[in-house]
């Protein structure tokens, strides 16, 4: 007698040799929806940020290195005259002179121009960029100081456009065809490569001070260790000048380092000269 069995179970079970029951078939398979794309992992985002920071640091080190082809080693900013006249005669007088140059003289003015050039590029403000480029080129106390900042500025732009081109650098060249002061050139380059001003400006001032110290070490002369002691002592003035410059409106820029300005003027007629300024 045949028997018709109606299978109402959803799963047919079978026993293996071991006696363990295992499923053979499911009457209604589990439905799967479309696969969702995995979100970016935090580790990947961190690595991308680290790569960007590494690239920014690499470019800053290259652009502000003494080896960058702008001829910075050939300028003393008037220090050569100050050494000849006895204003600078040892490590302490060199440190004191540089502190004034940086905080109240040309160093501070350069920091202000750098900050405003960087801000104009970052904000895509052509009018502000033109204004700071024009003022920085005119705001020099002597012929030699003009040569010092514009020759280096032009050389910096040419080298950077060739090795690290960017649309913002091209735009700046089309907007301004006059003399380019060094702080404006470096500020534009840093902003065009998305290097923050709070990182780039103290690095620029460090390079400026280091070049002044190098001139002093050769002229006085001083030992290399004395030079490093002075560089260490200038850390706080560099930080203070950075903060002050970033908060200074362009119309408030000014210099009060009159002796340093006179040094840059009188260097032109100095009998024996090793530097161009």
CATH homologous superfamily annotation of the domain at 74-266 = Urease accessory protein UreF
**What letter string, H or E per element, gives the SSE order?**
EEHHHHHHHHHHHH
Strand order of the main beta sheet, please? 1-2
* Gross geometry: globular
| Rg estimate, integer Å | 32 Å
How far apart the termini lie comes to: 119 Å
Tell me the number of strands.
Answer: 2
Provide the descriptors you would attach to this structure in a database record.
12 helices; two-stranded antiparallel ribbon; disordered N terminus; 277 residues; Urease accessory protein UreF; globular
Summarize the structure.
This protein has 277 residues and is mostly helical. It has helices spanning 42-63, 79-85, 91-104, 106-122, 126-138, 143-163, 167-175, 182-192, 197-219, 224-233, 235-246, 258-266; strands at 11-15, 21-26. Helix 3 (91-104) crosses helix 4, helix 4 runs antiparallel to helix 5 and helix 9 (197-219) packs across helix 11.
